[in-house]
Write a structure and sequence with these properties.
It is a single chain. With about 625 residues, the protein is mostly beta strands. The chain has 5 domains: about 15-145, no CATH class; about 165-235, no CATH class; about 245-315, no CATH class; about 405-490, no CATH class; about 505-555 and about 560-630, no CATH class. It has helices spanning about 5-10, 220-225, 385-390, 515-520; strands spanning about 65-80, 100-115, 140-145, 180-185, 195-200, 225-235, 250-255, 270, 275-280, 305-315, 350-355, 360-365, 390-395, 430-435, 450-455, 480-490, 505, 530, 535-545, 560-570, 575, 590, 595-600, 625-630. A 4-stranded mixed beta sheet has the order 7-10-9-8, with no helix packed on it. It has a 4-stranded mixed beta sheet with strand order 21-22-23-24, with no helix packed on it. Helices cover about 5% and strands about 25% of the residues. The protein is built from 4 helices and 24 strands. InterPro entries: GlcNAc_Chitin_IntDeg. It comes from Thalassiosira oceanica. This is Chitin-binding type-3 domain-containing protein.
Length: about 625
Amino acid sequence: SRHDYPTTTASPTWNPTTASPTDYPTTASPTVSPAPTLAPTPKPTDHHAGGCHPAYSAGASYAAGQQVSATATAETPTTTPCTCSEASCPSNPGQTTGCTKTTTVMTSETYNYQCVDSSNPNWHYCSSSGYKPTGEYGSLAWVKGTQCSGVITPVDPLAGIANPPGCPEDFVAGTEYEPDAKVSTPIAGYSGPAKQIFICETEPMNQFCGKSGYGPGTGQYWDQAWTKGTLCSGSVSPTASPSWDAAMMIDGCPGAWAMGNSIYEPGDRVSKNGIVFECSDGSPHCSSEGYEPDVDAETDYYWKLVWTVVGHCTGTIAPTGSPTFDQATVIGCPDEWVKGTTYEEDDLAAVTVSSTPLRKIAYKCKKWPFSGHCKDISPAEEFGGHLGWTKVGGCAGTVSPTAAPSFDALALVGGCPDNYSTTAEYEAGDRVAFQAAAGTAGSMALAAGWRFIVYECKGWPSTSYCSQDAYKPGSQYDDMAWTVKGHCDGTLSPTVAPTAYVNADCPAFGTTHPECTYEANTDAHVTTIPQCKYNKEVEVTGVACTCGDSGCPTPSPTSTTCTKTVTRISCPAVNNWSSGVSYVEGDVVRVGANMYTCKEWPYYFNCNKAAYTPTTDPDGLWKQAWTESGTCPSSC
């Protein structure tokens, strides 16, 4: 399958609703690195001392800015006079006056709270019971308001909005939404008729609108696929039947609508009950089930997405010959599309839409990454065909036969570079040779029958695939990582070999690397430190300490052997990015001698994804997860 590219199949790996305080160290209060440039969450402005919002409920789903109330029980010590002779009254021997006793009074207080706004990523924790408003970690996700009592009168979200629009259909997870499709969602904490409208983004981001993690207003990544619209109430009002004038009269009615696969092209017309409809530009659904144009329909209005009312008609159109197609578009019909065939970008395929008369439509495979869909989804498929294919137009006959392809058709690009190696690390622009045919032993020249094809590693985002065996030149998926540049003969003229960065071992300790306290205290007595390294805090348990000393936990007064946990600085090597390493905030990788540091929460979740691997591309996707952090030293 060619669906391995990250832009269409990557799923979010972080689920804030399952997070719990156990993600934090048990010996200290949790610390969450703030997202850069986030404005502080303001204090709630609509908390009312006179009433409480609905009570917080563990397990419920809460959105950014939603308000709740929560009650906490506090213990208050109270000192009162007592009779010295009573058993419950503490007193000194012989004391007869001035005795007091302390009792604990339990009091309950209820406050309003507001989930932090969407500019603070901690709002994802509001639905986690480990971050309840009154809990130990509640202040990370909730802003405490004023003390309250009773029940607050809900504020009507439609107050002050004159004539709100009707609501489109509710959002349904898993639905494939078209660009600019509108949905509505309930308003958190509100049970009235008002809803919130969201608008699906344009291509290609509309492909995420129905996926898990992108639910409008609630998903972790919703703002990448949806735009928040206005409030609405009720439903979309049905439109009245159109009224006609003489200018909209069409001479003769075209045929009735028919269901099928890509029967209609942009500009085709049908009629029903004397009304003429025209297929919209670029729509693949004009002949799809559920899109039959009908102005009298009471419930289904999907046809309006793909059909336009252009007038009304009487009678019938005079018969004409079989439809013809613009031969300037496609000279002849390419081969029929066959599932499983490997199609590359700009390849053509035909689909038969009518057998009598014979009618075919030609399609062109889109450029990468969308070309990955071309072998699996037919161009005429109602749901998904447009992902990999672009309609070219009608075609007739066959493509004129051409001679069998010859190797000489590839341009000669000079001498041959090194053959592809599964152990090498390739960057954008690197070239390799692929042996297409073996010749006479003793010579590697073209004249001796040897055939080598030159491939060049593509730029971002394909570069990371060049070093993976599944995408090597000559393989089924090589076009996702490599571009064929031509054929070669002989060898390249010798050049000064590039010097790869070697991360050598350097002598440690003494006067060098005093900061590497972790390595200095290991039992293995480390004597070398990597030339290119970075400093990383690690916690070391079981470090011996003197019982009773400050900072040394003593299990009991008689303990003679005590240990503690200390923080030391480790100096790990800065290596190339690897899919086998789990990166966290502060980890460092390199590309050549250039170093990159994994960003803080929440960006570090992407540091482990291949699509965000650091590259030399100054505008690459990697900048969302990594920060440039200098170059490795050239010597110890």
